[in-house]
Amino acid sequence: MAEVEEQGRKLSEESTDESEEEDTEEEPKLKYERLTNGVTEILQKDAASCMTVHDKFLALGTHFGKVYLLDIQGNVTQKFEISPVKINQISLDESGDHVGICSEDGKVQVFGLYTREGFHENFDCPIKVVALHPQFSKSNNKQFVTGGNKLLLYERNWLNRWKTCVLHEGEGNLTNVKWRANLIAWANNVGVKIYDISSKQRITNVLRDNTNLRPDMYPCSLCWKDNNTLIIGWGSSVKICVVKERDPTEMRDLPSRYVEIVSAFETEFFISGLAPLADQLVTLYYVKDSSEHMEEEFRTRPRLDIIQPLPEGCEEISSDALTVRNFQENQCRDYRLEHSEGESLFYIISPKDIVVAKERDQDDHIDWLLEKKKYEEALMAAEISFKNIKRHDVQKIGMAYINHLVERGDYDAAARKCQKVLGKNMDLWENEVYRFKTIGQLKAISQYLPRGDLRLRPAIYEMILHEFLKTDYEGFATLIREWPGELYNNMAIVQAVNEHLKKDPTNSMLLTTLAELYTYDQRYDRALEIYLKLRHKDVYQLIHKHNLFSAIKDKIVLLMDFDKEKAVDMLLDNDDKISMDKVVEELKDRPELLHVYLHKLFKRDHHKGQKYHERQISLYAEYDRPNLLPFLRESMHCPLEKALEICQQRHFVEETVFLLSRMGNCRRALQMIMEELADVDKAIEFAKEQDDRELWDDLISYSIDKPPFITGLLNNIGTHVDPILLIHRIKEGMEIPNLRDSLVKILQDYNLQILLREGCKKILVADSLSLLQRMHRTQKRGVRVDEENICESCHTPILPSDMAQAFGVVVFHCRHMFHKECLPSPGNVPGIQYCNICSAKRRGPGSGILEMKK
């Protein structure tokens, strides 16, 4: 449980044992400080007996009968000598202009702090309670209650005299009274009553639970949460009562209001005071622990708890033990809890000490997090509430977090936080870099350094690069790739890398990094040389990006050796920069590479490299025979004699057959298929492609003494050659495999041909008839002739302007119109004329369909 803050502990007359302080991970809800200044001097000579709190000031009563008005810092602003004995209760109205005071010797005083009006009365018994009407300052609300063994209501009438009325008596001494709006609550030895001043009715009586406790030693605590909610604490019992309006239909002789107890529960300790905090309760406990193992000085420290009321119980939210002065000598009745509703301030009053508890703000929350070394949470809280915090700075908290991470040895996390905490403060950045250098952790901070618009001095980056170069080539290469070249002096780093290469000249990582540095420095030729030496994948990107084609004209073989596909694609895509002839010249001593280049060139354009087609024949034959035949088929510039010679020398039968057929020597080609390939299917396919009757005769003659060939012919020539020619030439008695199946297939093919012909004939007849009917319908239609039509020959209106004159018009089915005299003579066939326009366009003759005369 938390202790009162350090300031309070220093000023306390009695120190506490540090071993009794418990360190908990749960953050306190309240913070504490002693009310000092004038209060300290007062309580050194006197003792506090009661206090009431206003938003503007405090009113403190003492055992020696004095009342002090204090500001919220504890400074005395006014002092009143009321009585030589104990002040029992002080009451203020809402405006803070009037005060009511009662004392143990029976004195009651009600007076204005800023006026001379007042009420002074001496009773013959101790007066325990007094309460002013909340609106006492108003003339029509001049009312207050007071009493010792009975409760009296004083009210000033229109004659400016005080009228007295007994509200209650006969149940022992009064111990407390609280007035809120129109409701007065008081406690005596029996229980708590509530009186409605507007209806002048007592509306409830809440009985005391712990009847075995002395009411004077364990007095009742009353607190109004709002105008209708009363909180009662007595002994170890808490009740929350709500005043409600009664349904008019149920009233009869009952009061118009009634009280419902919405929550009631027992606590572990005795209650000395209560106050609301939102929907929770702040409770001041008197702890009476008789454990034998506990020393006397620690037995009765009061506790201030925050609890969450439930219908039949409560839940503890926080609990703080308070070390107040002389707490060992205090009893339950010596403590009071008062609160200020406006600022959520809670005053714990004891005879020799007054402690102020207040809700912790965001600064306090950050203090606690920092104390518990929860720096990340503290930083997050400060960032979220940076507008509301007053004592903390986000950057300072961040720096404390970085220091904590460094002390803990978590250098990577510390470096990562630098990026967020240091932001744009370059001085702080440089300080942190030098600190990381001192502890030997430059590598940790390197990846988080600023590298955008805001940058450190080049010396900082160079220092880190030199550090990596000494111990970590891979990390050095990573930084060179990630950092822009403008961050550091490129020449200095190049020189350092060259020094290291003198010791290890074949180190590929250093060489690659050096090439990148040369690239940043625009010395592309040096970078290209290194990339080619290393066969680095970025060489092609470098060439394209910086247009280095002139530098690679004598390095084509190296590029091809590294990656043929990429190299060829690059050369073909940029043939305007590196000519085809130059590439062929460079590759003449590497025919396998030359073939790859020319092959891709041919695939892109069959005609572009035509002058190298003759050379390609031998290249295909040597390195890529599968693509030789496609090349021969697609090339129109290949010398056939040269190709035939090469294929015959290498015994490439299929290629030779193709060349012979292309050169017109189909019989020789067929002979090679039959003799060297012995493949009747290919022979038949070849004969079908050539579609030559003599070639079929040669194929039949060659196959007539070979039964398997005859079977193949019978199965395939039915649609090209009359099968009877083959069947007649088969010798009697020759055994032919699958002859029956072959004959059946011939018959089926013949039937299929017949069906196809008949089907085609039917379709042709149907289409002819349909077109004839369509033409007939078209020619039967009339043709409109009016003044808008013109003669297609003389281009004048087809109808004369004077319809009384004789005229003649000829209209054709094609809709062209002529004057009769504009048409030429009918020709050899009298009576038949044709449209000159359609005849000239070869669209077929159109005969005249109409002749108009008049």
From TrEMBL:
Gene Ontology MF term list: zinc ion binding
The family this protein is said to belong to: Belongs to the VPS41 family.
Bias (Basic and acidic residues) ranges: 1-13
Function: Plays a role in vesicle-mediated protein trafficking to lysosomal compartments including the endocytic membrane transport pathways.
Subcellular location: Cytoplasm, Cytosol; Early endosome membrane; Endosome membrane; Late endosome membrane
Record field: compositional bias (Acidic residues): 14-26
Name of protein: Vacuolar protein sorting-associated protein 41 homolog
SMART domains: CLH
Signal peptide: none
Residues in RING-type domain copies: 791-839
UniProt xrefs under Gene3D superfamilies: Tetratricopeptide repeat domain (1.25.40.10), YVTN repeat-like/Quinoprotein amine dehydrogenase (2.130.10.10)
Major place of residence: cytoplasm
Membrane topology designation: Peripheral membrane protein
PANTHER family in the record: VACUOLAR PROTEIN SORTING VPS41, VACUOLAR PROTEIN SORTING-ASSOCIATED PROTEIN 41 HOMOLOG
Superkingdom to which the source organism belongs: Eukaryota
Intervals holding CHCR repeats: 568-712
Region Disordered: start-end pairs: 1-30
GO BP of this protein: cellular response to starvation; endosomal vesicle fusion; macroautophagy; protein targeting to vacuole
